[in-house]
Amino acid sequence: MTSGIRTWVAGAGVALLMAGAAAPMAAAAPASTTARPGMIDIADLPPDSLPWSGGAHDEPGWYSDGPCSAGFGVGGIPEDSIWDAGFSTSETASVSEHAIVLPTEAEAVALAESIRQYFAGCADRWRAGSPVYTVTGYDYGSLDVEEGATVGGVHLTRNPSWEGYRNFLYGVGRDGNTVAYVEWESNWTQPDVPAFKETVRAAVNKLY
């Protein structure tokens, strides 16, 4: 775990846990699951030379980390409040989406900002951890959708340049108490930023 990992524990939840521990044993209540927010599908993805496959997971949980969000973590948020979708082509690109449902809008505001700051440091983390790459970070601005979204990217060229490159795009947005972030990655193609912005817009619009 890194210092970038934030723990989100509600005091009310701790109190309920303590009360439950002190109470006599009783029949366990059925586990509650947060309803899955609306999520992107293949029709929302940036165009690619190869067909996309994949979709949203039917069960909640943290299934994967994207290249810029790896190591961020959402410690303390129940697994049934985190939803994931994953897409890929056979060899050119991949897209992942996470939708995280928070108890309050204030917590969602804080989480969205924390994710944005972590993504903004993606280029610096690559420079520090992979000196064989020339790394360039990009700020592609904001989107006017629901409570707002931002888009950025990272381009990596391995030295010597003939050994290849990697491109990442990421977007973070919020609708009420729910945060969505989307990541695109390719070792083959240049990023279609306008198309990816529409993917992020769709992700935020579809939450509710």
Please characterize this protein's 3D structure.
The chain has 208 residues and is α+β, with helices and mostly antiparallel strands. The chain has four helices and seven strands, in the order H-E-E-E-H-H-E-E-E-E-H. The protein has helices spanning 11-22, 105-120, 122-129, 193-205; strands at residues 53-56, 82-88, 93-101, 133-143, 149-158, 165-175, 178-186. A seven-stranded antiparallel beta sheet has the order 1-2-3-7-6-5-4, sandwiched between helices. It is globular, with a radius of gyration of 19 Å.
Classification by helices and strands: alpha+beta
Q: What about the largest sheet?
A: 7 strands, antiparallel
Count of helical regions: 4
- The overall pLDDT, averaged over residues, is 83
What's the arrangement of strands in the largest beta sheet? 1-2-3-7-6-5-4
Radius of gyration from CA coordinates: 19 Å
* Rough outline: globular
The amount of beta strand, in percent, is 25-35%
- Termini separation comes to 32 Å
Keywords:
208 residues; alpha+beta; 7-stranded antiparallel sheet; globular
List the helices and strands and how they pair.
Elements: H1 11-22, E1 53-56, E2 82-88, E3 93-101, H2 105-120, H3 122-129, E4 133-143, E5 149-158, E6 165-175, E7 178-186, H4 193-205
Antiparallel strand pairs: 1-2, 2-3, 3-7, 4-5, 5-6, 6-7
Task: Give the structure's gist in a few sentences.
With 208 residues, this protein is of the alpha+beta class.
